[in-house]
Design brief:
The chain is an alpha/beta fold. It has 15 helices and 17 strands. The C terminus is likely disordered.
């Protein structure tokens, strides 16, 4: 019996080990493979390109990584909580970039701003530290091995602030431009022109230098002859009426328009959308064709809207954050297919440039599942019967007993069963046994005293005949038992182990099993946790 119980305990331990191994492998590695293997693909693969023989430039679009720093979530600088949050946030984006984005083999990577969390507030040393982490997360510190992949950036409000900041802290804009380049510029990919603007200053004081420079750039673009389709890149989204629907991919409530200005010089201190007047003027000056697309970020959640301009409808897509720590439970990135040659006149706009939104693993849900599985494991180890799945055998015995005694109809059992009663006994490991006790009663009911001897041996149902014979041959002892009018004899039961001792034994068993599960899975978790980070950290330090 003890050997069988020990075997059941180890079978449960093995089962839980396998469950945890599968969970960790999926949560720390396999889930990042899902976008490239199953849920996402380049949009041009699903377009009917009748008569079109050209290729496409593949562009991966990432937004709002907002590298955590001393300004994040109100956590104390250099605190353990901040260090842990930084590590797991950086690790998630690192894994997402390497295992979810890079398997698509993009030709170009486009960042839509907000690379830092407290960029304008950080000192030069702190800013360089965050910038080094940013390059490390997105593999930019080893660009010599990726010379075939172009990278473009646009500024965000967490990088350089709004129109009010740069005139007061010009060093913030200077260090950004030194590392990331110009804030207003254009570039061509295939047969599509990308127009990048510094949206943080577009609504500033018209007499300000930064705002004037941005609008001068837009006006120069408007005077060019349009030969290609155009895409407008802006970190801050264009104006949306309050309560406007953002489409099926939106998971958080839509944020209404909010603009704050400095009372001193009316410069922008904060805004979540470009104002309505500036949005219309941008679309009119850039003169978009029906093939235009506006890409924005800043909102941290996905949004697809259509704007009406005098040149026709314009579609804007706001890309959600790639970080799981920025208020979006469903981080994402976007794949763009950009036409690499001239299209036939009868081509649809989607054939010039098309997009596909791709979702990353829901890291918060993964951690919730880890916690839930841990609680379920503890409950299983503490409450699972010692005989494991053998408990169903005891249930079958109980059902058989009930059917024989309550549903047997007119069939009469042997006389030796009639003078017996059954008692359910639970042992220290939680297993239930049916104990059959043989009673010695007189043939007629009376109030006489009956002398019986009750031995210390537990008699089971399989030995009922021999037990009856033994009881008949035993001499009487001085143990008086009253027999009532119902001829039922009550025998004292065998003493049970105390509940405290039973609980201690179960806790010891649970601790032993939990130690085995941890010994197998903790090394696996640590290996998966650092398999990318350790090697790449050494490479990063070497390159510095």
């Amino acid at each position: 019996m003890m050997a069988k119980r020990e075997e059941a305990v180890w079978n449960l331990t093995l089962f839980l080990c396998l469950v945890w191994m599968a969970t960790i492998l999926y949560g720390e590695m396999l889930t990042y493979w899902v976008p490239s293997l199953w849920t996402c693909s380049w949009p041009h693969l699903g377009i009917n390109r009748t008569g079109y023989q050209g290729g496409y430039v593949k562009v991966a679009v990432l937004a709002d990584p907002q590298i955590m720093d001393k300004t994040s979530h109100g956590l104390a600088p250099k605190s353990v909580a901040l260090e842990i949050s930084q590590f797991y946030t950086d690790l998630f984006m690192r894994r997402a970039f390497l295992a979810s984005v890079m398997p698509f083999k993009p030709d170009m990577i486009l960042f839509l701003g907000d690379y830092f969390d407290g960029g304008p507030i950080l000192s030069d040393e702190e800013w360089q530290e965050s910038f080094s982490r940013f390059k490390h997360i997105f593999y930019l510190d080893t660009r010599e091995r990726q010379t075939d992949i172009q990278v473009y950036y646009i500024p965000g409000n967490h990088d350089i602030g709004y129109a009010y900041l740069c005139p007061h802290k010009p060093e913030v804009c200077r260090r950004y431009e030194k590392e990331f380049g110009a804030r207003n510029y254009r570039f061509t990919v295939g047969k599509v022109d990308f127009i990048t603007i510094d949206a943080q200053v577009i609504d500033g004081n018209p007499k300000g230098d930064l705002t004037s420079a941005c609008w001068d750039f837009v006006k120069n673009v408007s005077m060019d002859v349009i030969s290609n389709s155009r895409v407008l890149l802006t970190h801050i989204p264009l104006y949306r009426p309050n309560g406007m629907s953002c489409g099926m991919h939106r998971h958080s409530p839509v944020i209404n328009q909010r603009v704050s200005r400095s009372p001193h010089d009316q410069e922008i201190v904060y805004q979540n959308y470009i104002t309505e007047g500036s949005s219309k003027l941008l679309l009119d000056l850039i003169r978009p064709s029906p093939q235009v697309l506006v890409l924005s970020a800043h909102d941290h959640d996905q949004c697809t809207v259509t704007h009406m301009s005098k040149h026709g409808p314009v579609r804007e897509q706001t890309v959600g954050t790639i970080s799981w720590q920025q208020g979006n439970l469903y981080p994402s990135f976007m794949l763009l297919s950009v036409s690499n040659s001239m299209l036939p006149n009868n081509s649809s706009p989607e054939e010039a440039i098309s997009s596909n939104l791709c979702f990353l693993p829901m890291q918060t849900h993964i951690y919730i599942w880890y916690l839930s599985l841990f609680l379920l494991t503890l409950l299983a180890l503490l409450l699972w019967p010692a005989n494991g799945f053998g408990i169903f055998n005891h249930i079958n015995d109980l059902i058989g007993y009930l059917s024989r005694n309550f549903f047997r109809g007119g069939t009469k059992e042997k006389n030796e069963d009639e003078n017996c009663e059954y008692e359910m006994i639970w042992d220290a490991e939680g297993s239930m046994h049916l104990i059959k006790k043989t009673l010695m009663v007189q043939s007629t009911c009376s109030s006489e005293r009956v002398l019986l001897e009750r031995g210390n041996v537990v008699m089971r149902a399989t030995a009922k005949k021999q037990g009856t014979q033994d009881m008949e041959g035993c001499p009487a002892v001085d143990m008086n038992i009253d027999v009532g009018s119902d001829c039922t004899v009550k025998l004292p039961s065998k003493p049970r182990k105390s509940k405290t001792k039973r609980m201690i034994l179960r806790m010891f068993r649970a601790f032993r099993m939990l130690t085995v599960i941890a010994a197998v899975n903790v090394p696996l978790y640590m290996m998966l946790l650092f398999k990318d980070w350790i090697g790449l950290t050494n490479e990063f330090l070497h390159n510095r």
